[in-house]
Amino acid sequence: MTAATTTDVWLVVGLGNPGPSYAGHRHNVGYLVTDELASRMGGTFRAHKSGRADVVEGRLGAPGTPGPRVVLARPRCYMNETGGPVKALATFYKVPPERIIAIHDELDIAFGTLRTKLGGGDNGHNGLRSMRSSLGTGDFYRVRAGIGRPPGRQDVADFVLSNYSRVETKELPFQVDHAADAVETLITEGLEKTQQRFNS
């Protein structure tokens, strides 16, 4: 029996940097989406016994129906070290890569839009690169929240580590809600239906 058949748990990882100084940055949209999912699950983040991530365990799905088991995770490290905690959690919960979802910011997608996919490269994203390295594969799901490219000649690193614009801040709750919906749909209905509905 393979790992995929011995467990029905999904590991949903919000990528970001820990601490209040990073909280509002574009790079931290993954944290915001896991916050929304935790709220839907009626849970609050607590330290995992590994000491390397905060987690919420519960079920996602329509009210009154016992949806799939889900572990929401926020690594307690900087973005470029994400892989270690994710690998530790995947091992602890016996979650294979094909049941891992990474939620992250995406420069090549306009703000307010989403893409979902399975596998692929890291496209210069340090969090994805670290996950690929630690897991030994890139074959996990990604929910990619668009942040767009920096205006003018602004450095990419400065852009992702800066707060959303005033206009974007007003729209951000809709994007976060939309991304959380995409995660739920991915878990309960699969990739094809999720892409049809959310890859606008």
From TrEMBL:
* Location (main, coarse): cytoplasm
This entry's Gene Ontology molecular function terms read: peptidyl-tRNA hydrolase activity; tRNA binding
Entry's EC annotation: 3.1.1.29
Where tRNA binds, per the record, is at Y22, Y78, N80, N126
- Report if keyword Hydrolase is assigned: yes
Q: Where in the cell is it found?
A: Cytoplasm
Name the catalysed reactions. an N-acyl-L-alpha-aminoacyl-tRNA + H2O = an N-acyl-L-amino acid + a tRNA + H(+)
The biological processes this protein is annotated with in GO are: protein quality control for misfolded or incompletely synthesized proteins; rescue of stalled ribosome
Q: Which family does it belong to?
A: Belongs to the PTH family.
What function does this protein fulfil?
Catalyzes the release of premature peptidyl moieties from peptidyl-tRNA molecules trapped in stalled 50S ribosomal subunits, and thus maintains levels of free tRNAs and 50S ribosomes.
Subunit relationships: Monomer.
The protein's name is Peptidyl-tRNA hydrolase
Which organism is the protein's source? Nocardioides ginsengisegetis
